[in-house]
């Protein structure tokens, strides 16, 4: 089982003990679907990290408990262990979203929050896999404005954290109709204007990306799955949330937009070459997907694709078809 599964299982144990006040090793083994020997090792590891766990015998039965007053410094805030840990866990996401000049302040706030955790606890939380991943962010879609959306997102998180299979009705833009899928959710990803679920689809034997707002219904199954390790940098070659082989892409930008292009980090692979006229040529190693093409088209006449030829032809076709829509009748 991947290393990430161990960390998520231990996180599940902490949540279960906090919610139920106490539980036996058998209870925890049944909840996480592992052996009692594995649970004993998990409890020992969590204790070694500094989490306030202890056992007690009640009516001849041994129970494990999470100390109710785990963080006395935060008594006035009312933070629970799960809330405090979730805040600390979200550090990477929040710091990524925070724009300067607030980025330093956000980092300072999390440093203060971290003082309520022991070093061992912080190391444990730092090992939690990235259930949430952030790509380039534009406008934000609100997923909490209806009860259905809140429940849908909560189920996705449950399925992702606890490796539960799910059945989903999903509106496909490509076919223009609803489809039913059996999915194994791996990760939730923020990207321009939306939230996406990265899930393995057993029927197709591959990972696919689904826009959360197009999920019409979602039901969790009791059946669990064992996740494979995700490819290194699953969206590494895309400006969005797509997968594909990278191509060498070169785009020439006009002088008046060149300073803006130079100062921004569009992709980790980027390099630029200054032109004599004040313009700049940006080179990227990325896949040719909708995210790349829409980004280029967003610059209008200020950008021109140099290569590859296939991308150049696609952009020209998009521009020609757009121009036809504005033709005088």
Question: Can you walk through the features of this model?
Answer:
This protein is of the alpha+beta class. The chain has 3 domains: 1-128, Winged helix-like DNA-binding domain superfamily/Winged helix DNA-binding domain (Arc Repressor Mutant, subunit A); 147-224, Roll (SH3 type barrels), CATH 2.30.30.520; 247-325. It contains 11 helices and 13 strands. The strands form 3 sheets. Strands 4, 5, 6, 7, 8 and 9 form a 6-stranded mixed beta sheet that branches. Strands 11-12-10-13 form a 4-stranded antiparallel beta sheet. 21% of the residues are buried.
Number of helices: 11
Approximate shape: elongated
Number of domains: 3
Taking pLDDT < 50 over at least 5 consecutive residues as the criterion, the unreliable ranges are 136-144
Give the structural class: alpha+beta
Shape-level CATH architecture of the largest domain: Orthogonal Bundle
Distance between the termini: 64 Å
Task: Name the CATH homologous superfamily of the largest domain.
Answer: Winged helix-like DNA-binding domain superfamily/Winged helix DNA-binding domain
Q: What is the helix fraction of residues, given as a range?
A: 25-40%
User: What is the H/E order?
Assistant: HEHHEEHHHHEHEEEEEEHEEHEH
Overall radius of gyration: 24 Å
Q: Give the biggest beta sheet.
A: 6 strands, mixed
How much of the polypeptide forms β-strand, as a percent range?
25-35%
CATH topology of the largest domain: Arc Repressor Mutant, subunit A
| Quaternary class | single chain
Mean residue pLDDT: 79
Main CATH class of the largest domain: Mainly Alpha
Total count of strands: 13
């Amino acid at each position: 089982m991947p290393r990430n599964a161990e960390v998520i299982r231990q996180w599940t144990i902490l949540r279960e003990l906090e919610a139920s006040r106490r539980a036996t090793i058998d209870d925890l083994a049944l909840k996480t679907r592992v052996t009692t020997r594995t649970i004993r090792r998990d409890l020992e590891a969590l204790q070694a990290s500094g989490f306030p766990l202890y056992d007690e015998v009640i009516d001849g039965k041994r129970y494990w408990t999470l100390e109710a007053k785990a963080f006395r410094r935060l008594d006035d805030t009312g933070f629970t262990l799960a809330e405090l840990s979730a805040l600390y866990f979200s550090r990477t996401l929040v710091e990524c979203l925070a724009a300067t000049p607030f980025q330093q302040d956000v980092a300072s706030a999390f440093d203060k929050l971290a003082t309520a955790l022991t070093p061992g606890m912080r190391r444990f939380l730092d090992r939690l896999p990235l259930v949430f991943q952030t790509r380039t962010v534009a406008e934000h879609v609100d997923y909490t404005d209806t009860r259905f959306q809140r429940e849908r997102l909560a189920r996705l998180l449950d399925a992702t954290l606890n490796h539960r299979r799910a059945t989903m009705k999903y509106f496909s833009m490509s076919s223009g109709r609803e489809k039913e899928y059996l999915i194994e959710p791996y990760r939730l990803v923020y990207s321009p204007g939306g939230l996406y679920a990265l899930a393995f689809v057993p029927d197709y034997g591959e990972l696919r990306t689904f826009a959360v707002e197009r999920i019409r219904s979602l039901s969790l199954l009791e059946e669990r799955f064992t996740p494979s390790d995700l490819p290194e940098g699953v969206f590494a070659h895309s400006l969005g949330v797509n997968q594909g082989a990278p191509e060498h892409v070169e785009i020439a930008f006009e002088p008046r937009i060149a300073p803006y292009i130079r100062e921004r980090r569009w992709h980790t692979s980027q390099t630029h070459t200054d032109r004599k006229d004040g313009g700049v040529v940006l080179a990227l190693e990325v896949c040719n997907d909708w995210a790349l093409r829409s980004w280029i088209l967003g610059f209008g006449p200020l950008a021109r694709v140099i290569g590859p030829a296939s991308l150049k032809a696609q952009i020209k076709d998009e521009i020609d078809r757009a121009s036809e829509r504005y033709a005088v009748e």
